[in-house]
Amino acid sequence: MRSKFLEEPRRPLGIGIEGLALLMTRKIQTDVARTFHLRAWLIVAMWFLLVRADGAQSTPIGSAVSTRSDASLQNSPQETAWRSPARLRHGILSATSGTFIADPTGLKFVPTTGTSRRWTYTNIKSLDMRRHRIILTGYENRKWHMPKLREFKFALEQEMTPGVAASLAAKVNKPMQNRVPDPNAPATTVIAVRRSDHFGGSNGLLRIRSEGIDYVTAQPHQSRSWRWADLQSLSHPDPYHLLVFGYRDSYGFELKEPLSRDVFNHLSDEIWEHNESDITGGSATVPASAPALGGRSPDE
Question: What's the CA gap between 151 and 54, in Å, rounded?
Answer without folding.
Answer: 9
